[in-house]
Amino acid sequence: MAADLPVPVYTSLSDVYPDLLLAAKHGARFNDLASEFESRFGSQPAYIARAPGRVNLIGEHIDYALFGVFPAAIEQDILIACGPRSSSPTTPEPSSPGTVTAQNTFPKYTPQTFTPMLRVVSQAQDQAQDEMLDKDVRVQDWHLDIDKSQLRWESYVKAGYYGVLNRFFTSSDEYPVPVNILVSGNVPAGSGLSSSAAMVVASTLAFLAVNHKLDGVKKGALVQMAVENEKRVGVNSGGMDQAASILSTPNSALYITFYPSLSAELVSLPQATKAGEGVVLVCANSLVVSDKVVVTRLSRRTDFAHFPGAKTRYNLRVVETLVAARVLSRKLNLTLPPSSTSNKPPTLREVLSAYIGRPEPIAADALKEGLERILAEIHVLKASALRGEIGIVGNEDEDEGVTMEEMISASGLGEDEFKRIYLSWVDVEATRFQLYKRTKHILTEALRVLQFRELCLASTTHSISILPTTTSTSSSSPPSSSTSSSSTSTEAFKALGALMNASHDSCSRLYECSCPELDELTQIARESGAYGSRLTGAGWGGCSVSLVPESQVDTFIAKVRSRYPKFRGLEGDALNEVIFATKPGVGAFVFELT
Ligand code: NG1
Ligand code: MG
């Protein structure tokens, strides 16, 4: 079934976009890119790999804790035209196998040439990778230099290539072809719409296609590959973006779960019965660039929450939530599954599983009930509780966090072992670690995702599991289906909007991943007629997503434009680029030029 669906390869865009206007619009983009490729490299590309960005409706910063998320692909995408270099009459054959000449249609991204280095190994060096390869012994291993200390456009191209090389060119009798590629796209970078995942997915697809390795590759396997590939750029992200980019289908959002294994269910937003009473999603870019890959070292006296950088922002959150999972399981005396080895520390989702004490996959209703119960116990993670102080005072969400020493002591591990498990892969310096606030966000956000899904299922007739590895989760019977009338759909939109607002509030106060501009933009959106509005993606800048009555989109956009200071004076394309309505779009595919 769906994990088993092959990655689609098309030779006609009208098979992808049944809407003629859309097919013509994208057809023109594909043609332009192919002509540009030909004029730069002297021959037609063989393929164009295409992967969309995504908007996350709800479920922020919980994918790496292995809780379910609710994204949808957007129409904007990354296109990578590629062709084997040997087919080019104007350029000489390079001597090393697999050399890549990579160009970008945006002049600020300068051309790059890189060659993977081959290392011969006698046997498996990386057990996990070999298991995925289904091979006992690898005889060769490829390396590409990826600069993690700065954001470079070609790093995302290399990341996709890396995975292809190390999965498909492991025996000494096969070498990758030299390749020309030309990258283009319209997913705004650093905006929380996952241009990075779109780049990595498109790059993975391009290198698979040009090396004739696409045959038999299933969508599920491509998601796993793209997730692993993107980690090479330096952000220890979850799998939401790659899964959304690959698995989306038009007009549906995806409920994606990661535990006990990857699974995706198509869920539509509630339909209004009366025309014009439906909703659309509007993305608005705060125009603050969200940059997770810059490394910023902090002085001991600095509050990390206000500084940029993957290591201090995104990856620090990953560390805090993993440590919180360990401490919570100890405080609640839970026995974690044997798979939670020290090399793969348990996540909060695995802790919840142990807390509920039922075999996986656990149905959505039971997960919800478990989340509600465990939330009543997480005060054990407050700094005062960890220090053994009696009596908890102040606002229930206030907590000053713990020091490194206190955190290590709460983990029950020795300092060396703690650092090996939780800090060896990341460069963080912070004075306080927020175990309570991060956990409260993750568990309440996981609950909101389940509530959001339930509201959608209650008002729509279908939900189809497309990666049915955990099908029995769908025994999480949707709430008994209500008769759909416009008043109930309006009530449903209000309830969805309220969940989005609560999500933003939690991101802002507990996860501290918003910024003043995003707080302002989402507030303006609510005051301009949105049912709900929240940041989308990692935050600290980037886009908001708002649920807006279909009939009011134009007035909504006009109001936001007049009130959000960074939008004043923007018109036409410049305005459309920063605030636009979007519908769930088609997932990644390869276009073969004939
Ligand atoms: P963005 O910032 O949109 O790329 C990141 C992570 C996701 C997820 C979200 C927060 C990457 C590639 N993706 O998304 O996995 O954790 O933040 O929900 O870093
Ligand atoms: Mg990204």
Please provide a brief summary of the model.
With 594 residues, this protein is an alpha+beta fold. It is built from 17 helices and 16 strands.
Distance between the termini: 29 Å
Summed over residues and divided by their number, the pLDDT gives a mean of 87
Radius of gyration using CA atoms only? 24 Å
Classify the helix fraction into a percent range: 25-40%
Cofactors and ligands: 2-acetamido-2-deoxy-1-O-phosphono-alpha-D-galactopyranose, magnesium ion
Give the structural class: alpha+beta
Verbal overview:
- 48% of the residues are buried.
- The chain is built from 17 helices and 16 strands.
- The strands form four sheets. A seven-stranded mixed β-sheet has the order 1-16-2-3-8-4-5, with helices on both faces.
- Mean pLDDT is 87; it is low at 128-136, 293-309 and 468-484.
- It has 594 residues and is of the alpha+beta class.
- It is globular.
- A hairpin with a 7-residue loop joins β4 and β5 (112-114).
- 2-acetamido-2-deoxy-1-O-phosphono-alpha-D-galactopyranose (NG1) is lined by residues 56, 60-61, 63-64, 192, 194, 196-197, 230, 235, 237-238, 240-241, 537-538.
- InterPro entries: Galactokinase_CS, GalKase_N, GHMP_kinase_C_dom, GHMP_kinase_C_sf, GHMP_kinase_N_dom, GHMP_knse_ATP-bd_CS, Ribosomal_Su5_D2-typ_SF, Ribsml_uS5_D2-typ_fold_subgr.
